Amino acid sequence: MAVFNVVLPELSEGVEAGDIVQVLVAVGDNIAKEQALLELETDKAVVEVPAPVAGTVQTIHVQAGEKAAVGQLLVTLDTAVVTAPIPASPVAPVPHAPREARHEVAPVIAAPPEPPTPAPPPVVPPAVSAAAPAATPPPLAVPAAPSVRQLAREIGIDIQQVQGSGPGGRISIDDVKRHARELHTRPWPQPSREMIAPTGLPDFTKWGPIQPQAMSNVRRATAERLAHAWATIPHVTQFDKADITDLEQVRQHYDAQRVRPLGARLTVTAIVLKILAAALKRFPQFNASLDMTTHEMIYKQYYHLGVAVDTDRGLLVPVIRHVDQKNMVELSIELAQLAERARNRKLTPDEMQGGTFTVTNLGGLGGTHFTPIINPPEVAILGLSRSSMEPVYDQSTSTFIPRLMLPLALSYDHRLIDGADGVRFLRWIVEALQQPFVLALEG
User: Fold this and answer.
1) CATH class of 3-110
2) Tens digits of per-residue pLDDT, 88-109?
3) Beta carbons of 329 and 258 less than 8 angstroms apart
4) Domain at 220-438: CATH architecture
5) 295 is catalytic
């Protein structure tokens, strides 16, 4: 009997496990090469794990609903005697909710497991004396004049930590100032996962009935990613409004004449994407990433923009690549296609990676303002709220006239982007929105 053990391969970068959605075979089935063995759901997609060789299913080591980690044994195949594969598995598929796109991953064939090596007997540590530990001696007095000690107290310096340069290690005022400068130039430590780890909740059943519900992979990944982003990135949000009264007339005209016949819509989001591509070229610090391990600013020479899409499974952010090389008609069509794939769970992991800047539009749901959270490793995100008619003062007629105003919210990483740059970037976008004649539909 020739035995092949199929284990879960590495799915994609950063994905170490997934949930078994459905086992597609049963013990005794004759399996053809590349036939799907099971479906696995990660935080990005549903994938099929195919058989690497033809064989007969000898043992199934996982069940639907279980979590499988990379390297875990999934199915054992017997390839000694293989009859003609049956057209379909006799096991009726288990119905479940619509899924994202299935894409195959190459399985890994593992050797049969060897018997475990007996663990060595535990080492018993020597007995520890129960005597009370000796009291910590008080810190020795450092050689420093009263004026030096007073300066250290006033600027918040621990005199015990200052290295003296005088005879016998005597500390001078210059030594205190030098120590203070060193403290200010040291990089701040980045928060670790332990520092932002979630804390336990109280027992809510003491006050009434509850209904726990497990988080989906997408919701769990979103929660962890945004919590880490909020804890590690110093967010600043800049607000502004754009008068899109004239732009809306142009949008409606070209939407009916050029875009709708192609099965898409010319939306404000598509127009903003085109404007952003030009703005990012003018302000390259918004199309960058910050590497605090090497203290480098990484400026990207490509413009891949993510667009947040609301789905029944949570927020997904597909990425439109090379936005600067596409016109608004192309952007409108691609945006509609990606949004539809996101809602039908057909996005692949590659379609949600590589973004350099993100746009999120809540205008279709309502609201006036919100503060979007940056999607790392990006350094900025632009939020759009619902446009509404507002009275705007016209100096030429000394009257208030109704204008369609679009609220904008720009969140940026203050470690790389200063407040003045944030204002200039957002004002540039506002002015571009208020001058629709500069927006070439074919540009």
Assistant:
1) mainly beta
2) 444 444 444 444 444 444 444 4
3) yes
4) 2-Layer Sandwich (3.30)
5) no
